[in-house]
Design a protein that fits this description.
This protein is of the alpha/beta class and 289 residues long. Helix content is 45%, strand content 18%. Strands 3-2-4-1-5 form a 5-stranded parallel sheet, sandwiched between helices.
Length: 289
């Protein structure tokens, strides 16, 4: 059965209202229903544009699945439904993918009013190769999944883009320097398109040191340059950094050794010996404290 309404994905500004396209404005003005991540943020945008009274429903990571039926019902009634997130394009490290899949499965017409995306803005500002790249979104916070993803980045022959929260930025840069090598080139972009936009470029080691000294504030995008063809042997210092991070997160010595060995490709015996030495140092430090 062909439906008469449609779903339009609207890209919203990352932080500068001037980046909103005319087409996005027209689409929002004609919307009967707006599905959004946060009604306060999207409602504020609509108000600035002079659009009032438009019906809105929250479609975030917790509620996205529950609004699918209401979205399809509205479209079946001939309504124009818009999907927007707080900033950037829907479904790119933001809610929306389940709604888009459901609409496609139902045979709904899907359109897009494209807008800025933080990963592309950060990539072109990075000064790193842009011909081939991979997007990792937010990395897992710990465990084997994080170790596996970091290992993938270390071996990746394409430029890699990662999103990160300010309170985890230093740890992630430290981990990336340990697995990719301290001299791997990278950039860190902050507050893209906003008044305090900042892009730092350099080695992973220098970027880690910068943000260790300067407390991170804002929203960050890390861009990591491609790996060299030859894998490098990890130094003891790099392995100890990774071991300490896992142990500090509550992993057992056995689990920390397994994770770091998997992550770096270094033999478990070598990693285990370093872990034992590190554990002794930590015990001695606790005793002295």
């Amino acid at each position: 059965m062909r439906v008469s309404g449609k779903l339009t994905l609207v890209g919203t500004p990352l932080g500068n209202l001037g980046d909103l396209t005319d087409r996005a404005r027209e689409t929002l003005a004609a919307a009967d229903l707006v599905l959004c991540e946060d009604t306060r943020r999207t409602g504020g945008l609509m108000s600035k544009l002079g659009f009032t009274g438009t019906r809105m429903l929250v479609a975030n990571e917790h509620t996205e699945h529950s609004v699918i039926d209401r979205m399809l019902e509205a479209i079946a009634e001939g309504q124009n439904v818009v999907l927007a997130t707080d900033a950037g394009m829907p479904a790119i490290s933001d809610p929306g993918s389940r709604l888009i899949v459901a609409a496609a499965d139902a045979g709904v017409e899907i359109d897009v009013a494209p807008g800025p995306t933080a990963l592309i803005v950060a990539l072109v500002l990075s000064g790193l190769p842009t011909d081939r790249f991979a997007f990792e979104g937010f990395l897992p916070r710990k465990g084997t999944e994080r170790a596996g993803r970091l290992g993938d980045i270390a071996r990746e022959s394409r430029t890699v883009i990662v999103y990160e929260a300010p309170h985890r930025l230093v740890r992630t840069l430290e981990d990336l320097a340990a697995v990719c090598g301290k001299d791997r080139m990278a950039s860190v972009a902050r507050e893209l398109t906003k008044m305090h936009q900042d892009v730092q470029r350099g080695t992973l080691d220098s970027l880690h040191q910068h943000y260790f000294d300067v407390p991170p504030k804002g929203e960050f995008v890390i861009v990591v340059g491609p790996s060299s063809a030859e894998p490098s042997v990890r130094t003891d210092e790099e392995l100890i950094v990774l071991l300490y991070a896992e142990l500090n997160d509550g992993a057992s010595t056995r689990d920390a050794v397994a994770l770091v060995s998997t992550l770096t490709g270094e033999p478990k015996r070598r990693v285990y010996d370093l872990a034992i030495d590190l554990t002794k140092v930590l015990i001695e430090d606790d005793a002295e404290a």
